[in-house]
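Chapter review: from sequence to fold.
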Amino acid sequence: MGASSVAAKIMAKCGYKVGQGLGKQEQGMSIALQVEKTSKRGGKIIHEKDLFLPPPPIDLMPPPQLPFTTENQDATEPSITEIMKSPSKVVLLRNMVGPGDVDNELEPEVKDECNTKYGDVNSVIIYEIPNVVPEEAVRIFVEFKRIESAIKAVVDLNGRFFGGRQVRAGFYNFDKYKSHSLND
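The token string follows.
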């Protein structure tokens, strides 16, 4: 006899019938909470009232959010699958801070966190590009000793929020990084 059948028998003994709400006047939940996966390590709880609400009228729906764009980029950000097709020991973090927000503590803070969470870091370079959209202005390059550490960092950091900004993480060509071609 499984645990669910024991629980079902106890609930039936207390008067519960499938499809009825719990409580004296059947005012409680009639369907168990569900979890909808939203990311690798995240999800949101779906309540029965969320499952049965009709969609809002079209004119009340908010306009769709457009992804960040630059002149040299498609209108959509690459998926994590696309990003993983060309891994490198160098991770590029974009939109972590805005222009003018770089201080003396950012580089050691990034290096320390990456060392602690993902693996040994060789170097961190923070590079500001003038006259571009704020989301692209500050680039943080993190060179790891091992490519596995860089992969782990990209998976964890891409889409994460830092100071209210959504970080976009990807790989950067090692040869370009070593030759200090940081504008591409």
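Two observations follow directly from the output. The chain has two domains: 3-58, 80-178. The CA atoms of residues 55 and 177 lie 48 Å apart.
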